[in-house]
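hey all, quick one before standup. I had two proteins in the batch that finished overnight and I want to keep them in one place so we stop losing track of which output belongs to which input. First protein below, input sequence then structure tokens straight from the run.
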Amino acid sequence: MTAISDEEFAQFRRFIHAEAGISLADSKKALVSGRLAKRLNAHRMSNFTDYLRLLENAQASHERQTAVDLLTTNETYFFREPRHFAFLADHVRSLGRTSAPFRVWSAAGSTGEEAYSIAMVLEDCIPGRWEVLASDISSRVLEYARSAHYSTARLENLPPDYLQRFCLKGQDAQDGTLLIQRRLRQTVRFQQINLNATLPRIGRFDLVFLRNVLIYFNPETKRDVVSRVLETLEPGGYLLIGHSDSLAEVDSRLEPVAPAIYRLKPGVAGF
């Protein structure tokens, strides 16, 4: 197999931007080569140009999804950025008892740790009165998330009482792993969603986690993605982004509340 050329890398950059809105930096050339090399081997191809031709084939939708899965980064763990979960707990407790379920969307949910962390907080604070939707563009990570089976190496920030109440520790052959409690597994819903395309009908949410994904978009794509997400947010609802993300000059309908936490101005519809 030949090394990836600058032109081939440029074509893969255009591919992933068209498919997912992701802007790959010049420094990602080795990452693209390393992650896609296995697909060349699977198809017995000797160069990346042949693989690009395959991706252009209208009948190769499954292979395009595989390439997207390999080129998207999915790094997460339970209770990442703990202050966001403290904010969620304080907010839902302040609402008192309501008849409607509190709805949260984990919009770049990756392998599910964020969604299950949200579910644990909500079940602790407002048991039985919540809904969580988790989405990602990668079908591969969503399949992993649905299994709800994780290595205990991801537990550094998981509160000990939550570990005891909401997780089952593996034994014998499953030692070193955990399984999320059945109620949470059955309640959290996972759906494949491309944030860079028209969103499906998923309803309105009281709070949206859109964390650690905006950094991969150029300014125009970022504005479009945020605008789409705000269409799903209830007026007065909250948008949480990653601390490495930025919403500077992205949408005037949002007002900052705390670091990486924004509120859709009351009385302002999302669309």
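OK second protein, same deal, sequence then tokens:
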Amino acid sequence: MQHSLRLMFAAMAAVALMHFNGVAAAQNAVKQIKLTDKQIEGFISAQKDMSAVAEKMQSNADKPDPKVQAELESIAKKHGFASFEEYDDVAANISMVMAGIDPQSKVFTEPKVAIQKEIEEVKNDKSIPEKEKKQMLDELGEALKSAQPVANPENIELVKKYYEKIDAVLQ
């Protein structure tokens, strides 16, 4: 459950970043790309800097600040990306695969199936307060609507290769 909550937070931060860039939530379809080792390593090294900017943005998400946008571009380039857009595509593809990997067995399940399983777990978890459970189920329902199958199966093995490092930076 903690793994899912971390991934949900990462997904919400990515959505906040996309919202900041003027991308409508309805256009939340992931631009699937074939990942490389270099991109994943850049993503991992950029997380500390990107997380700090994402926290600033969450407090002021309604008004995109050009200075913050410039900071995002600078961080992306510092970590080997051509632009923030490339970083964002890489982050979305990594998140898509990470969401489908079971933390114990490291077995991958397609996103729709994984989200449906998580919905059932949340529904059956008696320890979650009803208000929180409803919010989680609403968010999972939205995630289910936009879930896509992984178009580049080689991304699964590549993300598994870096799973521990990715998981550590998303905590």
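Flagging for whoever picks this up: Residues 5-27 have pLDDT under 50 and may be disordered. The first helix runs from residue 2 to 20.
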